[in-house]
Amino acid sequence: MPKVVKPLDIHNLLPQTNCKLCGESSCIAFATKLANRQTSIEKCPHLFKPDFSDKLQKLMELLAPPVKEVIIGVGDRAVKIGGKEVVYRHELTWRNPTAIFIDVHDEMSDQDISARFNFVKNFKFIRMGVELSIDGLAIRCVSGNPERYAKLVSKAVEEVGKPIALCCLEKEPLEEALIIAGNVKPLIYAATKDNWRDLAELASKHKCPLAILSNGDMALLKSLVKSVTEYYKVSELVLDPGTFAEEDVNVTLNNFVATRLLAIDGGDKELGYPLLGVPAALWTLSSKDRDNIEFEESVLASLLMSRFADMLIMHTISPWAIIPVLTWRDCVYTDPRVPSSVKPGLYKVGSPNESSPLMVTANFTLTYYIVKDDIEKGGVDAWLLVIDTEGTSVQSAVAGGRFTADKVFESMKAEDAFSKVSHKSIILPGYAAKISGELESLLGDWKVYVGPRDSADIL
Amino acid sequence: MGKEAKSLDWLLSYITSLLKSIEDSKEIIIEDLTLEVDNITIELPVASRAVEVEKEAVAIEEKPIKLIEATFNYPKPSYQGSIASVKIGATSSEGGSRKKTYTIGGAKAPQFYNFIAPQQHIPVIALDVFDVTPPLAGPVKEAYKDVLNDPVAWAEKCVKVYGADMISLHLVGTHPQNKDLPPSEARRVVESILQAVDVPLIIGGSGDPRKDMEVFAEIASATRGERLIFASITLDMDVEKAVKPIAENGHNAVALAFLDINQAEELCRKILQAGLPKDHLILDPTTGALGYGIEYSYSVFERIRLSALMGKEVLQVPMSCAATNAWVAREAWQKVAEWGPRELRGPLWEATTAIVCMLAGAELFMMMHPLSAKIVKKYAQALSKLLKNPSTSYVDWVKSKF
C-alpha cells in the first residue's frame, strides 16, 4: 500500500505563515496536497531560504518515495527513473515511465553504430497524438580498449543528444570515457563484487549514478549497495538483479518482485532504488534466428515492465518489436483513477450543420478519441452520437448486448438527433453491422448505413 | 570549433581532456585555437579534479578490503485466501472421453510469486475455432487458410500442427443476425470436434444472451460428463436458468464481466447461488487489446486476484483472458511499412496482450495466432517452474559481440 504521510506532520515543517505564495489558501491546505502527492515542495519559496534548511531536509525525507528517484543525464538530456510510491499501479499511479535504452558497442561497424545512433535519436511512434520515443543509449565496451571506447562515447555524446549509460566492467575504459562524458552524468554500469571499489570511486568523483550488478545473488546485491553507500557515499543507485532468460526467467521475475515488495511494503532502504532489466541479454544465449530473438526480447521487455522494471536496455531496433513495448509503457503509466468512459451524448466534431453526417460510436474513452481523431483527420464535420456501452468498445459492446438498436434509437430521441440533421441517414460502426436491420425498422423511413470496422477508413 | 555554438558542457569536457593530455604528456602545443567567450566565468572543476586524482592515489591504500555483509530474505506476505482449483475435461474413467485434461487455479499467492508459494499449474492456452468464419486479420488468415471453412479440420490443425492445449469454439453462426443456426446444428459441430481431437473444449456463444442459453443447454446435456467450459454467462442472462444445464451436466462456466470488479463480484455470486460449484467457475474480467484499454484489464485482473487472496471468497476463482481481442488493434493487422511486417507485429501484439494479463493473474487463454500461442506457452512454462539457481550466466552480456 502507498506510504501514508499525515498532513499535520508536514504542516509542522512548513513556515506556517499562510502566505498563499504556493497557490493554496493556507499552509495546512498545502500540507494536505503534499500528503496526497498533488503538489510539490518547490511551490513554497520560504522552504528554500537558509533558515529552513533543516526543516526542508526533514520534509524531503518525510515525503521521499520508498523507491528513490534517480536522474540519468543533465538538463534537457535527462531522464528520471524510479520514484515509485506503490507496488501496484492501481494503488495510486506509477511515476516516471520506464526508461528504454538501446545498446551499441565499440566493435560494431560504423554502419551499425550510425543506425543505432539514428534510431535512438529519431525513432518516433505516434499514438493518439502523443509521440513515443527511445530514452537513451547504452554504450558497451567490448574491445577492452580505453581509447577505442572513449572515442565511441565521445561520438555518442556529440551526435545523439540523449542520456547515456556506460556499460563496462573494467576501470580503465570507464575512466577514459568519463573524462569526456562525466559531465553529462551517464549511468555507470555496473559495480560488481570484483570492481566495486573502482567504480564507486569513479561514480563519486564524477557525481554519476551507479548501477549495481550481482549476477542473481541477492544478498550480494544488498551487500554492494551497503558498501558503496557507506564507504563512498554514492547514493544515486540503480539495481540490476540480473535478467536471466529462457528457463531462468522465473528467477528474474521473482527477484524483481521480491526487491520491490521489500522496498515498498518492507521499507528496506537498501533495496529502495530503481530496477534495471536487460532484455538485450537474450542475444547472448541463442543461436536462434533473428526474428525469434527480437520477438522474445520484446515480450521480455513488456514482462519486466509489468513487474516493476524502471529502466530497460534493449538490443532490437526493429519498429515491430519496439512499438508494442512503447505502447504498453504508454498505457500502464496512465492514471488508473481516470475512468474508462466518456459521457454519452451527441458530440460535435468540427462544426457540423444540418446536412452533416450522423455517426454512432461507443463511450469507451479510447474508442471515442480514436473515432473523433479519425473524423477530424478526414476533414469532415460530423455529429457523433456516443451511446452508453458502459465504457466498452464497439466490438465487445455488440457481443455483450450493450450496443443495441434500441439503445441507439433511445439515445437519438434523448439527444434530439432528429432535429439536428435534415437528412434521414445514420452511420453505424462496422462491428455493429448486425443491428442495422433492427435499427432500420425502428427508424421507419431512415436509411441506416454501415461504416468501416476501423474508423481510420472513414472517407 | 570557433563559429559553432558549442555548449558549455562540451567546452568543459574539451578542457578536461586537454588537461588530461597535458597531465599525461607534460608538454602540449596548442595551435589555431581561439576561444571567443564574453562575460563568462568558467569555474574549472577540472583543476581540482586533477588534484583529487593525486589525493586518491594515496587513498587507494586505504580502500575498503571487504564488502559489508548483508542478508536478503524473500518477503513472505501471508494471504488468507486461496483460489479454487477448476478441472477442465474428463477422461473415460472420469465420465468423459478426453485423453488430455487440465487443472487451473489453486493459487495461494499472486501468479508466479514462487518465493511465496509455488505456482500450482501451468497456464493453459486454447486456440480459437469458428463455426462460421468471421473476417480475420491477414496474419491469422494465413495460418488457417486451408481449414477456414471446416471447423473440424480447423480444430485438428490447432491441436495436431500448432500444439494447442485446448480448442475454443466460437459458435458465432448461431447468432440471430448471423446465420441463426439452430442449437442442434451447433451441437453437431461440437460432437464432430470432440470426435476429431482429444483435448477439452471451450464452447463459446455468439453474444446473443437468449440464443446462447438455448445453445448451451442443448450442448451441455449432449456432452454430459465431459467437463467442458461454457463461455460465457453474463449479467444480461437469466443467470439461474443459464447455469442449470451446465451445473447439472457437470460442466464448467465462464462468468464474463466488463472491466469492473463490482460487476464481477455480482455475477460470480449469482452464478454460485444458482448452483454451480465454485470449483467449476472461471472469471473473465474482459481483455482490452494492447493500446486499446489493456491497462484497465491489467489492473482489474490484479485487483480481483489480490482481493481474492485477501479473503474475498466470491472472487476466489481462476481467471481467463481472451487475448484474441488484441487483433482489434490496427497496430496488429494494418499494413504500414514503417511499423515493420505485420506477420510478426500482429502475433507479437497478441502475445504481449496475453503476457501482461498472465502476469496479472489470468490462467486460461483464448488465442488466435500459433506463433503468439507458442511464445506465451513457453513463458507460462518457464515462469511456473520452481525456483532454483540460474543455469545461465548473465554478466557476459556486457562484453558479448552481438
TrEMBL record, chain A:
GO biological process terms, semicolon-separated: acetyl-CoA catabolic process
Name of the protein in its database record: Acetyl-CoA decarbonylase/synthase complex subunit gamma
Keyword hit for Iron-sulfur: yes
Record's keyword annotation contains Glycoprotein: no
InterPro entries noted in UniProt: 4Fe-4S_dom, Ac-CoA_synth_d_su_TIM-brl, ACDS_complex_subunit, AcylCoA_decarb/synth_gsu, Dihydropteroate_synth-like_sf
PANTHER family recorded: ACETYL-COA DECARBONYLASE_SYNTHASE COMPLEX SUBUNIT GAMMA (PTHR36214:SF3), PTHR36214
Residue ranges of every copy of the 4Fe-4S domain listed in the record: 2-61
Alphabetical list of NCBIfam families matching this protein: PRK04165.1
Positions contributing to 5-methoxybenzimidazolylcob(I)amide binding: T361, T367, G391, T392, S393, V394, S455
Lineage: Archaea, Thermoproteota
Residues that hold [4Fe-4S] cluster according to the record: C19, C22, C27, C44
GO MF annotation terms: 4 iron, 4 sulfur cluster binding; iron ion binding; methyltransferase activity
Pfam families named among the record's database cross-references: CdhD, FeS
Keyword annotations from UniProtKB, A to Z: 4Fe-4S, Cobalt, Iron, Iron-sulfur, Metal-binding
